[in-house]
């Protein structure tokens, strides 16, 4: 083993010591890759999901300092965090929008792996644990927004209680274990599930699901964090209405990742079938996809049936999600009638989307194959050079200075907005700060890659552009005045070879009989 003579001191030495110690633990089998250039974020959506999970863990731990998991204090404690605790508004918005971001990233990650066929390269276990991890992620987010105990949370709790009760045989037992015997037990039990039980399950699944090589792109991580903060600044989450048992609840819907199931339940068909059986069949079909897919190739164009199933499922998820949000605006109709969805119309639409999804997939595959054929043809006949944007060193320096100045301005603006009570504006500015930092880091990384890249080779001369030697001049031509030529009729004399300088004689060297003959070649260069 080679030993390094370089000593690292201070913070750098401590970092390397810590990293070397951690590398001897579980990280021995996991290698992190920090790309030196921009790479597509689709390849490491799982890593971004895990990063948001860390953000949720930190922000949730801070919220635990003031939250009180009791029936009569839960909503009031969250209101105190939101209005009175310093930066409590910011932490709560980060936690809420981070949970939505984690669910969205998990869904995008799953479908990217699905359409790219990554589960085919002996990754069946990774795929199965990933699907289960997505379901647990939704349950974690569900229990999180229920512990506030608002009217919206009460609706979600009632739906969860009715669904678990509808399970044959074990339903009442599961309901009592998860929700307790009534509202007095539910807050504490959901709180325990949200902060301890479900995160433990998620960490266990992540330990199995994580691949051996992880891509950690710093600018992209900063950009995701900035997007969460900007969303919190533009769409600050409100408190809603506190649930009062004596007050009739208003019109509300669950979170977007549950409105699809809510739409099925609003058809007033059997709760177990609509709320549990259909989602369970969908999850089982996703888990079994690696064993059903027998195509030899990975591209979605070469797996038409699997691609058609994925497109159809996406279309049904989007339609049912939108349908779950829709409530008739006619206030003259009773609330129950406004919430009911016509089952014939609803299920007819769902069934009709199956042939439409398969037909759309077939059309996509035909168009993609035709586009690939045209691109290959254009590549063989068109120009070979690809247009790129290359920034000079001067422009890179100016961009870095401009981003640094903008960063200073944003820090001052965010601090000033926090002082004068504009909480959402300060949260928005902090999100912009993270985005600017991501751009700064990316340009700096680009400059380093440009510096390390080899310079272009010098231009080579084409064969027709070789320099021509000067034509030899005869003695008589050299004696003629400038501009004159030999008289007509006189034969041109033979060309003389160019003069070769004769070696210097002894007199030329300044060496005579009286001079020292021991003169070396090195002495000739002396003055």
Automatic annotation (TrEMBL):
Q: Which residues cross the membrane?
A: 42-67, 94-112, 124-145, 190-208, 215-237, 272-292, 304-325, 345-365, 395-419, 425-444
Report one GO cellular component.
Answer: membrane
Membrane topology type: Multi-pass membrane protein
Cite the Pfam families for this sequence.
Cytochrom_B_C, Cytochrome_B
Q: What is this protein called?
A: Cytochrome bc complex cytochrome b subunit
Task: Tell me the ranges covered by the Cytochrome b/b6 N-terminal region profile domain, including all copies.
Answer: 1-222
One GO BP annotation of this record: respiratory electron transport chain
Q: Name one GO molecular function term.
A: electron transfer activity
Q: Give the UniProt subcellular location, in the record's own words.
A: Membrane
Residue ranges annotated as compositionally biased, kind Basic and acidic residues, are: 479-497
Where does the record place the region Disordered?
A: 452-527
- The record places domain Cytochrome b/b6 C-terminal region profile at 244-368
Tell me the domain of life: Archaea
Assigned keywords, A-Z: Electron transport, Heme, Iron, Membrane, Metal-binding, Transmembrane, Transmembrane helix, Transport
* SUPFAM superfamilies xrefs: a domain/subunit of cytochrome bc1 complex (Ubiquinol-cytochrome c reductase), Transmembrane di-heme cytochromes
Question: What InterPro entries does the record tag this protein with?
Answer: Cyt_b/b6_C (IPR005798), Cyt_b/b6_C_sf (IPR036150), Cyt_b/b6_N (IPR005797), Cytb/b6-like_sf (IPR027387), Di-haem_cyt_TM (IPR016174)
């Amino acid at each position: 083993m080679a030993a390094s003579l370089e000593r690292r001191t201070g913070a750098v030495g401590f970092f390397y010591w810590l990293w070397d110690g951690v590398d001897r633990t579980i990280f021995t089998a996991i290698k992190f890759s920090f790309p030196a250039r921009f790479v597509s974020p689709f390849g490491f959506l799982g890593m971004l999901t895990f990063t948001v999970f860390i953000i949720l863990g930190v922000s949730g731990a801070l919220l635990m300092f003031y939250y009180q998991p009791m029936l009569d204090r839960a909503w009031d404690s969250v209101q105190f965090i939101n209005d009175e605790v310093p930066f409590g508004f910011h932490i709560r918005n980060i936690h809420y929008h981070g949970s939505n971001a984690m669910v969205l990233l998990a869904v995008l990650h799953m479908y990217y792996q699905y359409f790219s066929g990554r589960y085919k390269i002996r990754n069946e276990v990774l795929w199965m644990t990933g699907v289960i991890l997505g379901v647990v992620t939704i349950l974690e987010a569900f229990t999180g927004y229920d512990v506030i105990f608002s009217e919206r949370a009460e609706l979600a709790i009632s739906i969860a209680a009715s669904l678990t009760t509808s399970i044959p045989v074990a339903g009442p037992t599961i309901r009592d274990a998860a929700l307790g015997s009534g509202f007095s037990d539910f807050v504490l039990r959901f709180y325990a599930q949200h902060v301890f039980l479900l995160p433990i399950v998620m960490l266990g699944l992540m330990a199995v699901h994580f691949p051996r090589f992880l891509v950690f792109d710093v600018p992209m991580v900063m950009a995701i964090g900035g997007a969460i903060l900007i969303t919190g600044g533009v769409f600050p989450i409100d408190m809603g209405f506190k649930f009062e048992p004596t007050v009739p609840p208003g019109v509300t819907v669950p979170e977007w990742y549950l409105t699809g199931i809510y739409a099925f339940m609003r058809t007033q068909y059997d709760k177990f079938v609509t709320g549990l059986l259909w989602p369970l069949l969908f999850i089982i079909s996703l888990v079994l996809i690696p064993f059903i897919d027998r195509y030899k190739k990975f591209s979605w164009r070469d797996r038409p049936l699997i691609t058609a199933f994925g497109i159809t499922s996406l279309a049904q998820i989007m339609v049912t999600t939108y349908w779950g949000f829709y409530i008739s605006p006619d206030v003259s109709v009773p609330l129950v009638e406004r919430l009911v969805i016509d089952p014939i119309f609803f299920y007819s639409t769902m069934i009709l989307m199956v042939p439409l999804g398969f037909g759309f997939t077939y059309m996509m595959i035909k168009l993609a194959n035709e586009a690939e054929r045209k691109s290959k043809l254009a590549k063989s006949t068109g120009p070979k050079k690809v247009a790129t944007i290359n920034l000079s060193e001067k422009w890179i320096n100016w961009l870095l200075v401009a981003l640094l100045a903008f960063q200073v301005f944003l820090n001052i603006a965010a601090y000033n907005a926090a002082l004068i009570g504009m909480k959402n504006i300060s949260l928005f500015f902090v999100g912009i700060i993270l985005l600017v930092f991501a751009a700064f880091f990316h340009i700096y990384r680009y400059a380093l890659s440009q510096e390390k890249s080899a310079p272009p080779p010098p231009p080579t001369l084409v064969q027709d552009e070789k320099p021509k030697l000067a034509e030899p001049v005869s003695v008589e031509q050299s004696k003629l005045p400038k501009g004159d030529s030999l008289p007509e009729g006189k034969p041109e004399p033979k060309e003389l070879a160019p003069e070769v300088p004769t070696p210097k004689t002894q007199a030329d060297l300044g060496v005579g009989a009286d001079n020292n003959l021991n003169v070396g070649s090195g002495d000739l260069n002396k003055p």
